[in-house]
Amino acid sequence: DYATKKIVKKKLALIFSKKAQFTNKISYKKRNPYIDLIRILGMYSIIVHHILVHGKAIEKYRHYYQLSLMNTFSFWHVSSFALVSGIVGYKTSKYSNLLFLWLCTLFYSVSIHYAYKKYRPYVANEKIFRLCYPVIFFKYWYFTEYFGMYLFLPLINNGIANISKGDLKIVILSLLGIFIFWKDYMTNDDVFRTANGYSVLWLLIFYITGTYFGKYKININRFIFKVIACLVCILVFFGSTLLCFYLPYYKGKYNNSKIVIKLKQLFRHRINSLTMILQTISLTLFLSQLKYNKFLGKIITFLGPLTFGVYLIHEHPYVRSNIIGNLFNKDSIALPLRKVIFLILYRSFLIFIICSIIDYIRHLIFTLFRVRKICIYLEKIIKKILNR
Question: What Cα–Cα distance (Å) separates residue 202 from each residue in 42, 142, 194, 277?
Fold first, then answer.
């Protein structure tokens, strides 16, 4: 009706008015440095993994088995983002956040397409319609699965708020036990369709696991116990990774025994294997016990929110096939191992910094046009309509 339209116009005018404070700060609320550090390290590990796999570094330098080991060390990244989502998101799950992430995805999906269409038109062969709907056409696998997961969060978070600590422990241990031990130890078949961790179901399981760490924070006060806990986390991280890498190569006396065969199944190089779970949880617990000084904390909390943009830029189909995929084309196959590892780490760092700068510009544009506030306002309008 006319009165509703008038109210909407006033609200939109207030959003875009000069009175609305413009800020170039990344966050609107206090951020936790260790959460953002997990995001930063996780995204850097993703870039390393993509250079090793999509950049064909492992394929080109297959005589260096250390590169495969390097890939195993970086494989904890996917579960870490689901875990972090549970740690920080269990209190609220606004669909405006999902809309905002979709607009960020749309921004890069379309803008990179037009940039390539102008400067390298022979590369831009994708239909713009498909790029406008990245979830429907599966342009970014993680965002597609995350989108599906997020739709369940209001129900899950409501349950987390009302469940006891003991019952939450039982739920998490049951989920991890059934979806890891049952799947890997009892059978080789993917009976629950977890797609080796590339699924909505697996992200939901690790999101629920993260809610426990968010709701019941593990703080160790005594210094000596904190040091011991950190050392245990480091040992678990390195031990599980090395076991995952070297166990498949075991050809000893007990190679054909049932126990060794089952262990090889359990410690597979896969997102939802026991190894990667131990990697993710041990590293998260380790980082949560560290203290961050003010200057370092500012740098971490500045870069943390930009990591999603880093993913969207470097994982765009055009960028992945034409930049990431060609990083080692001109390098000699005779490069020494030390040089190859340096190039992988250096180029990963360079990609992370360049993409972070680009995403900060995107952030300024979105802040200027009050995109997040508009998303929040649209959510309120839709809720009012549905609640009538």
Answer: 17, 11, 6, 11
Give the HSE-up count for residue 240: Cα atoms under 13 Å, Cβ half-sphere: 25
Using 50, 70 and 90 to split pLDDT, how confident is the model at 19? very low
Q: How far apart are CA 247 and CA 263, in angstroms?
A: 8
Is the pTM here over 0.85, yes or no? yes
pLDDT tens readout for residues 261-282? 777 777 777 777 788 888 888 9
Question: How high is the pLDDT of residue 15?
Answer: 53
b/e code 197-208 from CB counts within 10 Å (16+ = b): bbbbbbbbbbbb
Residue 234: count of CB within 10 angstroms of its CB: 13
Q: Token pair for residue 29?
A: 């609320």
For residue 231, the one-letter residue type is L
Residues 123-141, buried b or exposed e (16+ Cβ, 10 A)?
ebebeeeebeebbeeebbe
CA distance 277 to 116: 39
* Cα-based distances in Å from 201 to 176, 180, 197, 266, 373: 12, 13, 8, 19, 31
User: What would you report as the CA-atom Rg of the chain, rounded to the nearest whole angstrom?
Assistant: 23
Query: In the structure, how many helices (H) and strands (E) does the chain have?
Result: 19, 0
| pLDDT for residue 314 is more than 90 | yes
